[in-house]
Design goal:
By secondary structure, the chain is an alpha/beta fold. It has two domains: 4-277, TIM Barrel; 390-509, Double Stranded RNA Binding Domain (2-Layer Sandwich), CATH 3.30.160.270. The protein is 41% helix and 19% strand. The chain has 17 helices and 15 strands. It has helices spanning 25-38, 52-64, 78-88, 104-111, 115-132, 148-160, 177-190, 210-219, 241-250, 252-255, 266-277, 298-306, 335-344, 351-367, 373-388, 431-443, 487-508, and strands spanning 4-9, 42-46, 69-75, 94-101, 136-141, 165-170, 198-203, 224-227, 258-259, 394-401, 409-415, 421-427, 448-456, 465-473, 476-484. The strands form three sheets. It has an eight-stranded parallel β-barrel, surrounded by seven helices. Strand 14 (465-473) and strand 15 form a beta hairpin. The chain is globular and about 75 Å long. Bound molecules: 3-methyl-2-oxobutanoic acid (KIV) and zinc ion (ZN). The site of 3-methyl-2-oxobutanoic acid has 9 residues, from strand 5.
């Protein structure tokens, strides 16, 4: 039987380390459930010791997601290992992933520790993790810039105390496929016991080679690869999981390995991660980019119309791309048409859910001629978000005036936690500022907007605008999203959703609401 390659998805851990990304616990859970549908082998759910929020996210995922192994990252320190175990112990299949720098550069300049002390830390903490859990991964960080003899010895020692997966980390994306293969072959020749553990690789994309290096590693015997959906991650990102998976699937003739993943869940996974993280996928991105299966030149179009294989090496449906639109969705469409299209996009809905989405759909179709797939994704996103989000205040109406000679003014009417409506108004620097200030006045708190992004969901002047907002209050960050054909209304929803999260966090911590109403 052909060997199997396992996939460790680290979108929720290394992916979250991308500059500017911050996900809530609910958003992480949504992604983890989707990774479960994709059938990745291992979900690295977070770094439990890094913050209470991360601990909670790992714990919720461990309790909720069945199928994949659920893993928490851990530095080689006792408190981290204990926290990792605390967060994952209820998982069906738990794993602790201990990492420690092996290169001289890191040990000298960052850890500022003697190499033998570092060796002891690695051994002690892998042994501690093994005391909790049968499945322990060890990563020598910056392995590709490490003295090979020291690296072999470190790996041999951690295997002796129970590491079950050894993950060679190209932390700074320094490797080139041929020299990465040499390193892996040397490890297999020189490390006693390596044949009894899973050899894994974790490649970063600083030189644009993360996927190539991962594939090169599989060619010489690596049987676990780590990566992120859409290739997100620290700096230039991690290896893009969808690219590795489809290379192995498309060139089975060459690699001859088995995969347990459901490739048709790749596109829905990519869309979900992009929406939640706010990181757009470039149009020409392999596998999941908007242009990945689009043909522009006349010669190519002619070929594809005769037979798609002339210019496509894989079928779009293999990666879960929805089939071409046969029906145009608009205000005359019924529930059946909507449900069929949502199913083609990878959503499975109960009858009640369809009814609830249909209401939003009709509202949107009243404002837009044609409701596109992207619009539907936003509708579903809003639906999932409002179902899982803490709601203290909801927006009943928002009214604003603005213009090049006017003072921007907004009035909002919110329904409060007691069910009563409250109205207030404010001026501002612009209509968005006026709306946010009016909301602040009603709820009696304020926060600083640290990031504000508006995106047109589809083409055309009637496009839905999707707004992502991040607010800061007392050193804590809260994010919110909103969508509407009017971007000021979308901004009101996004700001209110961030404020609701802040109020819920205050309540949880039993803190008095922080901040005062601006005058
Ligand atoms: O890049 C890296 O070295 C890591 C380790 C924690 C595996 O992310
Ligand atoms: Zn990494």
């Amino acid at each position: 039987m052909a060997a199997q390659v396992k996939f460790l998805d680290t979108t929720l851990r290394d992916g979250e380390q991308s500059a500017g990304i911050g996900m809530t616990v609910d958003e992480k859970l949504q992604i983890a459930r989707q990774l479960g549908r994709l059938k990745v082998d291992i979900i690295e759910a977070g770094f439990a010791a890094s913050s209470p929020g991360d601990f909670q996210a790992v714990q919720r995922i461990a309790e909720d997601v069945q199928g994949p192994i659920i893993c928490s990252l851990s530095r080689a320190v006792a408190g981290d290992v204990d926290a990792a175990w605390g967060a994952i112990k209820s998982a069906e299949k738990p794993r602790i992933h201990v990492f420690l720098s092996s290169s001289e550069i890191h040990q000298m300049h960052q850890l500022r520790k003697d190499r033998e002390d570092v060796m002891t830390m690695a051994v002690d903490m892998v042994a501690r993790a093994r005391g909790y859990c049968e499945d322990v991964e060890f990563s020598p960080m910056d392995a590709t810039r490490t003295n090979p003899d020291y690296l072999y010895r470190m790996l041999e020692e951690v295997i002796k105390v129970g590491a079950t997966t050894i993950n060679i980390a190209d932390t700074v994306g320094y490797a080139i496929p041929s020299d990465f293969q040499t390193l892996l072959k040397d490890i297999q020749r020189n490390v006693a016991g390596i044949e009894n553990v899973t050899l894994s690789v974790h490649c970063h994309n600083d030189l644009g080679l993360a996927v190539s290096n991962s594939l090169a590693a599989i060619e010489v015997g690596a049987r676990q690869v780590e990566g992120c959906i859409n290739g997100i991650g620290e700096r230039a990102g991690n290896a893009s999981l969808e690219e590795i998976i489809m290379a192995l699937d498309t060139r089975k003739d060459l690699f001859g390995v088995e995969l347990g993943v459901d490739t048709t869940q790749l596109y829905p996974s990519s869309r979900l991660v992009s929406r939640i993280t706010g990181m757009n996928v470039q149009a020409n991105k392999a596998i999941v980019g908007e242009n990945a299966f689009r043909h522009a030149s006349g010669i190519h179009q002619d070929g594809v119309l005769k037979d798609r294989s002339t210019y496509e090496v894989m079928k779009p449906e293999r990666v879960g791309l929805p089939p071409d639109v046969q029906l145009v969705l608009g205000k005359l469409s019924g529930r059946a048409g909507l449900q069929a299209r949502l199913e083609a996009l990878g959503y499975s809905l109960t009858r009640e859910e369809v009814t609830s989405v249909y209401e939003r759909f009709v509202e949107l179709a009243d404002k837009k001629n044609e409701v596109t797939d992207r619009d539907l994704e936003i509708l579903m996103d809003e639906e999932n978000r409002t179902a899982s989000e803490p709601i203290s205040y909801s927006l009943e109406t928002v009214h604003f005036t603005s213009g090049d000679k006017d003072i921007p003014t907004a009035t909002v009417r919110l329904i409060g936690p007691d069910g009563n409506a409250k109205t207030d108004a404010s001026t501002g620097n612009g209509p968005v500022d006026a709306v946010c200030r009016a909301i602040d006045r009603v709820i009696g708190t304020t926060a600083r907007i640290s990031d504000f992004q508006v995106q047109a969901v589809s083409e055309g002047r009637d496009s839905v605008g999707s707004v992502s907002i991040r607010v800061e209050n007392n050193g804590r960050m809260f994010s919110g999203r909103g969508a509407n054909t009017d971007i000021i209304v979308a901004s009101a929803h996004a700001y209110l959703s961030a404020m609701n999260r802040m109020l819920a966090a205050d309540e949880e911590a039993e803190l008095p609401a922080v901040g005062t109403t601006p005058d």
